[in-house]
């Protein structure tokens, strides 16, 4: 042990020679080299990825013990140390930049070294006594960075989608469904091309939002099943070199026990090592949901615009002052936030697409950036959706009278006359109403088309045009 500046260090060795490692660090020489090599962004792979790495090391230790390759004493110490890592006790010792060596070799060694040194402590040894438990020979036994990093992405994405994203998406859809029911008879003008169109109800609009989100959730569920295929035991190129017979089957059983998720072995470890199609499909599903959410957020911003010079149909909750110069101004900040989150998810998808197509021969080496972006998309989408739902959607109120007045003033009400008097005469009425600043009803009442008052009421009632004006059978 020695002192460098004010820092106590220990000297360890890897295949390139001696390396100084901070004495309080649980990582070792390969991680220390990578810290110096990759001073890029200051961003690290998230705890979800570290938890997934730890689960792989736990399952592998059990499988190696059962195969007789790893002694029970060493295996149990590795398992216990990896369990502590999965519980988050050593997050501060995962120190590598997200932009690092290809295939996640450095990230894998960070996990191997932390677990090895903690396992050594559990057995009563000092850090660095690798003749007892070695990061490569024991913690990484029957594994490669090439299979474990791909596998960790699948595990981390599955856990975060299941535990964090899907619950808030379902909550958001429930709230949209509730609004669709509540506002089913609130009639308002429809708009196509941002111009007057035949009336709809606000509930019908919200039912559309709900279905858009439902379709996205269904697509996410389908790719979630694909994520559950793990490349446990493919090792370096998919051949399974250096793993014992039965390793993969035992490891996947242990993984399911550790996570409580029904993972399965990939059908083809060569595809799983070379490709990243499932990660790309997952990102595409997240992008699809984001595009729908952008549309919903933009609509709410438009419908709540004003309060006096815009559409003014909705009132979004006032959660904070909107301007540093204009007193009393309130902005749709939660919808704006959701837009920005979704823009980032769409951008992440482009990075994932580039990384997925960058694989060469037997390996896609761009797994660190795949992990960084797919997990970032899941995390920010979950947080953004939850905040938007709680701080915006649940508190929306409706200006019902204003919606009805706008619907009655819409020139598109003339559409209902076309089946009775023809398209061209209906157009003449609409043009006259626009030219004279009249409503369609006022023009029809001025002209003699032979309609009774009851017929005019039936034809030009905006709610009737939506299909919600009469009881449905």
Strand order of the largest sheet: 1-2-3
Helix tally equals 18
- Indicate the CATH architecture of the largest domain: Up-down Bundle
Sequence stretches where pLDDT stays below 50 over 5 or more residues: none
**Share of residues in strands:** 5-15%
CATH fold title of the largest domain: Fumarase C, Chain A, domain 2
In which range does the helix fraction lie? 55-70%
N→C terminal distance: 84 Å
Mean pLDDT: 96
Shape: elongated
The count of β-strands is 9
CATH superfamily of the largest domain: Fumarase/aspartase (Central domain)
Brief summary of the model shown:
The chain has 473 residues and is mainly alpha-helical. Helix content is 58%, strand content 8%.
Which tags fit this structure?
Ribonucleotide Reductase Protein R1, domain 1, elongated, 3 domains, about 475 residues, Fumarase C, Chain A, domain 2, two-stranded antiparallel ribbon, Fumarase C, Chain B, domain 1
